[in-house]
Amino acid sequence: MPNIGNCGEIYFVTKDLFPNENNVLGPNAILLKTKIYNIKYFYYYFHIKIFQKQLEKITSNTGQTKFNKTDLKKILVPVPPLEVQDEIVRILDTFTALTAELTAELTARRNQYSWYRDYLLKFENKIEIVKLGSVSNIVRGASPRPISNYITFEEDGINWIKIGDVNLESKYVEKTKEKITQEGAKKSRIVKKGDLILSNSMSFGRPYIVNQEGCIHDGWILISDYQTNYSTDFLYYLLMSNKVQKYMRDNVVSGTVQNLNIDIVKNIEIPLPPLEVQKRIVEVLDNFEKICNDLNIGLPAEIEARQKQYEFYRNILLTFNNEEIYALSKQASKQASKQASKQASPKSN
Question: Which residues are in the Type I restriction modification DNA specificity domain (predicted)?
């Protein structure tokens, strides 16, 4: 576990993860090992809130977070008989394996979706190819400075869209944490609902559809006035395609921080099919994306449910309420076995 920086993170390391037979642990981490207890039991216990709160109490937040080994040794940890430790580990390992299996299946499905997306957007030589700059308006965002002078909590403030406001799993910019004044907006770049924005540094080239009016700083590139030629979702999928993403990666301006400039974006070459064709392709890709990413349906929903189930049983099994622990451990074991059997059964086509 790291004791400087990412305090509270716990890692279970097996021999197959080591690059060599003999390895060295860095100075900012603490190694725990035991020959008389099940070490995996402690790994699971260290994740529950009871332990994490005790760890917080010995962690200094002055500058970089840190705690020392002496204080860590003083934390009291319940140690049940070894056979109980083994059973708890067996149950939680089963839930972990179930989630990992579902996650692997979801990854395979997303790869399949990515392949179909690129295939549907290929068109080969049958469709006109245009440069993005010839069919849309592309400009860089702008930042009023110092920005702290323009942040407001007033109702008439303008949404201030930052990188931290977007979710890598989402197509949309839904809401912002901060707003800027009307005066600040005049010194920034206004974006409207339906516009597309691209991050131009760090995770550069990732497109988002703006779902609300607001302002963007110079860490964004705005793509607007494309609606005569493209549907919003179709253009989004084009920008997400592996071909376009590779073009941006290959042409990005190198430096301490890689930077995507307007000229690179303007020169992106993309197909221009009829709007009706775009609509049909979007319907197919929307369905694929929903299956892959929607937490209310399919595998994402099942993974979320398994994760919550795992966390519930982990917390219950490791709090050691003697009146409930035996009954709940039996229930958890039965549930884990049931889920394992369900996932192992042949899937109907």
Answer: 24-106, 126-305
| Tokens 């009871």 belong to residue | 50
Sheet with 158-161, edge to edge strand ranges = 151-152, 178-180, 158-161, 214-216, 189-191
- Per the structure, how many domains does the chain have? 3
Residue 309 shares a structural domain with residue 340:
yes
What domain range includes position 26? 15-73
Q: Peptide bond before 273: cis, by omega within 30 degrees of 0?
A: no
Q: Span 40-63, mean pLDDT? A: 90
Range with lowest mean pLDDT among 117-126, 251-260, 332-341: 332-341
**178 and 222 both lie in a single domain:** yes
Strand intervals (E) in the chain:
129-131, 137-140, 151-152, 158-161, 172-173, 178-180, 189-191, 196-199, 207-210, 214-216, 220-224, 269-271
Answer whether residue 219 is part of any domain: yes
Q: What is the dihedral of CA 106, 110, 113, 114, to 10 degrees?
A: -170
Look up the pTM and report it.
0.60
**Once rounded to an integer, what is the mean pLDDT over residues 323-344?**
59
Same domain, 218 and 345: no
Q: At what angle do helices 298-317 and 322-344 cross, to 10 degrees?
A: 150
